[in-house]
Write a structure and sequence with these properties.
Radius of gyration: 21 Å
Mean pLDDT: 84
Largest sheet: 11 strands, mixed
Helix content: 10-25%
Number of strands: 17
Order of helices and strands: EEHHEEEEEEHEEHHEEEEEHEEH
Structural class: alpha+beta
Number of helices: 7
Number of domains: 2
Shape: elongated
Low-confidence stretches: 1-5, 189-193
Length: about 290
């Protein structure tokens, strides 16, 4: 059956910098409540890309459109949740067990492949770019860019743009301290394996931890990365002699959750194009809360 052609209403070309909400109210002659409804239903496109943030900063020359059959572009996936989208970025919540980005040797489904299929609905020429890593076994928030310039900007200025990046984890054993900091040197090896190293051949890695709850022989902690290095959290928890539940590299056979108990729940960063501070936070996974019930 032939797919119905997408239908749009084009608004006047943007003439001056202006927030998307103000532009739609002024140029679209609609109420703010109407605009919020359209944004929620993913019916607003900027430069042919669905945009859901009401205060997205428009620039001169941009094209704003209203989709008349926007339901065809709705994002649906059992493996990732689309948290935020604009003309430059996608922020998602990834489920555990899903590759973030595949490789020549790993051609199975990944967050990258799912999102690529999604953006190609608007244009076959569109693509996405991975910005940072998240272990396959972990879940949580990730950022993807819609163009190479935005990706490079984010990567080159990651430590300046990202103001907070936090994880929640369940550790084996009950932690002695309520909070603390771990600082060491980590170096990458083949097969994406990292190890504790000296400062002569490694990168400085700092992790701040706060104990949230102790129960049933486990500890629920929040982890704030002073910076992000390969396998940093796993290695630092091992250094504390409290490895993450489900960490197969620690040779601990008991895994009550059948997954790695690590979730990226908080991400705050300045938009690489608009400079706006974006805040994203998810709840703890249900399985984490259940394991920690007394």
């Amino acid at each position: 059956m032939a797919r119905r052609a997408e239908q749009y209403t084009n608004l006047p070309i943007v003439k001056e910098p202006m927030e998307l909400m103000d532009f739609l109210v002024q140029k679209g002659n609609m109420s703010r409540n109407k605009v919020k409804t359209l944004l929620t239903h993913r019916a607003i496109l900027v430069n042919k890309t669905i945009t859901t943030q009401y205060n997205f900063m428009l620039q001169p020359g941009m094209l704003v459109q209203l989709s008349k059959n926007h339901h065809q572009k709705e994002f649906k996936s059992a493996h990732i949740r689309l948290v935020y989208e604009d003309a430059y970025l996608l922020v998602i919540e990834k489920r555990e067990g899903l590759l973030a980005v595949g490789s020549d040797k790993q051609k199975e489904m990944s967050a990258y492949s799912i999102l690529t299929d999604y953006v190609k609905r608007s244009s076959k020429q569109r693509r996405i770019y991975g910005v940072h890593r998240l272990d396959r076994e972990a879940s949580g928030l990730m950022v993807f860019a819609k163009d190479e310039r935005t990706k490079q900007n984010l990567q080159d200025n990651w430590e300046r743009l990202v103001t907070e990046r936090a994880y929640v984890a369940i550790l084996n054993g009950e932690m002695e301290k309520d909070k603390g900091v771990i600082s060491s040197w980590l170096a990458g090896e083949q097969l994406l394996v990292a190890h504790t190293a000296t400062n002569s051949n490694g990168d400085k890695a700092v992790t701040y931890y706060t104990t949230i709850k102790r129960a049933n022989g486990y500890t629920l902690v929040e982890l704030d990365l002073g910076n992000g290095r390969k396998e940093q959290i796993r290695l630092h928890m091992q250094e504390l002699n409290h490895p993450i539940v489900g960490d197969t590299k620690c040779n601990i056979e008991h895994n009550p959750l059948n997954r790695l108990a690590l979730h990226a729940f908080l991400l705050r960063f300045h938009h690489p194009v608009t400079g706006e501070l974006l805040n994203f936070e998810t709840s703890y996974p249900i399985a984490f809360r259940q394991l920690m019930q007394r």
